[in-house]
Design brief:
By secondary structure, the chain is mainly alpha-helical. It has one domain (33-94, 110-286): Up-down Bundle (Growth Hormone, Chain: A). Helices cover 80% and strands 0% of the residues. The protein has 12 helices and no strands. Helix 1 (3-30) packs antiparallel against helix 11, helix 2 (37-64) runs antiparallel to helix 8 (146-176) and helix 9 runs antiparallel to helix 12. It is globular, with a radius of gyration of 20 Å.
Length: 293
């Protein structure tokens, strides 16, 4: 497979994520009260990460058994088809069509607090370089077959911590506020990036992957819940769509910038960039005042 094929396939995969994320989160937000929304998104992230743990462990075992990556991806595709089965049982909330017709796809329909947070979340997405850079950093500590196997095991460790702390983090955001949990998560990401820039041993690397999983547990669900809190119920799907569109574009620039920095200056500068951008996002979140929908 050549890089152009990877580029196209990866782009299609991201399109699929863009199509499914906003409607899925809108269904979850509508299915929970504001007081329990954080827990709802926490459960989603925990289940998603648990699937990632099982999937990664299965991929590792299949690789150890001698299967090549093409066969492993084929098995993953077959398993993905099974996800359609529980989706058939999901009940959607049908709204008055007259309400939907009055809405326009424009930024003016978003609340001031939502606009502020979308900018801040985009800054954090710029800082949140792809996890593949963390995997590449891990590969620098191993050689031979372990250069493939060890990073995969560390990725499993990351997802274990993500899954274990997603629900507690969601519950804490319900009780202590989304902004407080997000601020702590953003700040912890700064520490993680600095750690990845400075780490010099594999035990330190393992500890950083644990913290990296905790960051995602604190941030992912709380961000979706915060967006849901800051949007009107009749326009929640549109608000989530704008949010995912904004952070998606920021992620594109994040990947390009990180790749160029990695190629020209090495891993340390790449993670320092992530730490700097996350610091700016943290300061922006601390200064956020208007949080009404």
């Amino acid at each position: 497979m050549i890089w152009q094929q990877v580029f196209i396939l990866r782009g299609l995969e991201r399109c699929g994520k863009g199509i499914r994320s906003a409607p899925r989160d809108a269904i979850i937000a509508d299915s929970a009260t504001k007081e329990s929304r954080g827990m709802g998104f926490g459960i989603l992230r925990a289940m998603d990460s648990t699937g990632a743990v099982i999937g990664s462990a299965l991929a590792y075992l299949l690789w150890r058994a001698g299967l090549d990556f093409r066969m492993i991806f084929l098995i993953a595709a077959l398993l993905a088809v099974l996800s359609f089965i529980p989706l058939l049982k999901v009940k959607d909330i049908i709204r008055d069509p007259q309400v939907g017709l009055t809405l326009r796809l424009s930024l003016s329909s978003l609340s001031p607090g939502m606009k502020q947070f979308m900018i801040i979340a985009s800054l954090f997405a710029l800082a949140n370089i792809s996890y593949m850079f963390f995997i590449l950093r891990a590969q620098q500590f191993f050689s031979g077959s372990m250069a493939t196997g060890a990073p995969l095991l560390l990725y499993i460790l990351f997802n274990v911590f993500y899954a274990c702390f997603a629900v507690p983090s969601g519950i804490i955001s319900d009780r202590m506020g989304r902004k407080n949990v997000l601020t702590a998560g953003y700040a912890l990401f700064v520490v993680v990036c600095i750690g990845f820039a400075a780490v010099s041993s594999w035990p330190g690397l393992a500890a950083l992957f644990m913290l990296y999983g905790l960051v995602f547990a604190m941030v992912d669900g709380a961000q979706s819940a915060f967006v849901s809190d800051l949007s009107r119920s009749e326009a929640r799907g549109s608000a989530l769509g704008f949010y995912y569109g904004a952070v998606g574009f920021a992620s594109i620039f994040s990947g390009v910038i990180a790749g160029l920095l990695w190629q020209s200056h090495g891993a340390q500068i790449t993670f320092i960039f992530g730490a700097f951008a996350a610091t700016v996002a943290t300061i922006g979140l601390l200064g956020m005042r208007n949080v009404e929908a």
